[in-house]
Design a protein that fits this description.
239 residues; 0% strand; single chain; mainly alpha
């Protein structure tokens, strides 16, 4: 139990950050398109730099929101612990067992999972003309995050089954599945490295595509970008 606490904490942080910031990720590009300021920004800054700046800003916003929640709770606990007879936090901390490998795996999954979902949501926001249309895609993007819990018993007890392996290496379900396996202790070092590598590559590919969608869809104020026209435009520019 002590070894599972910290990995499960990473899972909770991942869910919290993605769910809290999902709307901001979508709105970060759609609002600028609706306000007709995107093309003005791109006259003085590259699209890649702008997207990277948005991701860094979202990370900082996520950290701030976590602190805004944790700090008041910590203050309330400190002053009210004895009055309401809350357990001593030191006893809980003593239960936690720090495993450097599990810690690094959990941290890597949070970082690259965040990059993947941020790139995906920013790309969707860049492809549609309004924030209202972007929100219609939000549920579709978030569903894969919850799919692993439908097979939670299989993930815990039978990690070598096809469904668990699929969830472990499919980018949109990999962060949650691998974090659960990391917590319960049935994730080998090789599987963790392979899963993190796939997640990292997928994240950077999605970010690259999001940047190109952002460049292509800058002036599309009235319609959603058609995938076929985007692909044709990409090959035309290469030619």
């Amino acid at each position: 139990i002590g070894r599972a606490i910290l990995p499960f904490l990473f899972l909770a942080v991942f869910y919290f950050i993605i769910i809290i910031l999902a709307n901001q990720m979508l709105a970060s590009t759609t609002e600028e398109k609706e306000n007709r300021v995107t093309e003005m920004l791109l006259t003085s800054i590259k699209a890649g730099s702008l997207i990277k700046g948005k991701i860094i800003g979202l990370i900082i916003l996520g950290i701030i929101q976590i602190l805004v929640i944790i700090i008041p709770i910590a203050i309330a606990y400190f002053f009210a612990r004895q009055a309401v007879n809350l357990p001593d936090i030191v006893e809980f901390i003593n239960i936690v067992e720090f495993d450097i490998e599990k810690f690094m795996i959990g941290l890597s999954l949070v970082i690259f999972g965040f990059i993947l979902f941020t790139g995906l949501l920013i790309g969707i926001g860049a492809a549609v003309p309004t924030a209202k249309e972007a929100n219609s895609f939000l549920t579709i993007v978030l569903i894969p995050m919850f799919l692993p819990f439908l097979a939670i018993m299989t993930i815990v007890s039978q990690p070598q089954t096809i469904i668990v392996q699929l969830f472990s290496y499919f980018p949109l379900t990999a962060p949650v599945t691998l974090m659960i396996r990391n917590a319960v202790g049935n994730l080998s070092s090789f599987e963790a490295l392979l899963g993190i590598t796939i997640l990292a590559l997928s994240g950077f590919i999605v970010i690259s595509i999001a940047i190109r969608i952002f460049q292509f869809g800058t002036l599309e104020y009235s319609r959603t970008i058609n995938p076929s026209s985007f692909i044709r435009n990409k090959f035309k520019n290469r030619g």
